[in-house]
Specification:
Elements: H1 2-12, H2 19-24, H3 28-57, H4 60-90, H5 96-108, E1 112-124, E2 127-136, H6 142-159, E3 163-169
Parallel strand pairs: 2-3
Antiparallel strand pairs: 1-2
């Protein structure tokens, strides 16, 4: 849990909550470990008083109540993990910062007449795919279009280091 917490604190920045960067993370190991270990610690904190007080006061119902609280905690953590993992499995789009950075590169290139479509998808924690459909200036020759495509790819890679694969269709 210490490693997951350290990773979240590293990327936390100005976030107030620990869960916000965990939810924003594209690395499922971070929020899985943090969620599971948080549930385990919460379970221990609930189990001890439930068992101790149940035994001490002669009320076994307290042990049962503690078990119910633990089950509810596990259900909540499992639901959180399902929702976060589902988005990554289905193919979540890249963060708005990455999409905006790629869009800026495309808008700034003089060889492009217009941007028809921009699609992004996370492939891993630090790996995104960009697929774009653009319209090049009709006055450009084939070598100029090829040079523009190479330049655009290089500019995207320089400004967005998490973008691994780039597909440009003109």
């Amino acid at each position: 849990m210490a490693i997951a917490l350290r990773e979240i604190l590293r990327v936390r920045g100005n976030w107030q909550s620990l869960w916000a960067p965990a939810r924003a993370s594209k690395d499922p190991t971070v929020f899985t470990v943090l969620g599971e270990h948080s549930a385990a610690l919460a379970g221990l904190l609930v189990t001890f008083p439930g068992v101790f007080l149940g035994h001490r006061l002669g009320l076994p119902e307290l042990d049962g109540a503690a078990s119910i609280v633990i089950r509810v905690t596990l259900i909540l953590v499992a639901s959180f993990l399902v929702l976060e993992s589902r988005a990554l499995i289905v193919g979540e789009c890249a963060s708005p910062a990455v999409v905006g950075g790629v869009r800026e590169v495309l808008d700034a290139d003089a060889a492009l007449e217009r941007l028809a479509r921009l699609l992004t998808m996370h492939l891993g924690p630090r790996n995104a795919l960009v697929a774009t459909e653009v319209r090049f200036d009709p006055a450009l020759t084939v070598p100029e279009v090829e040079a523009a495509m190479d330049r655009i790819e290089q500019d995207i890679r320089e400004t967005q280091p998490y973008v691994g694969q780039i597909f440009i269709e003109g």
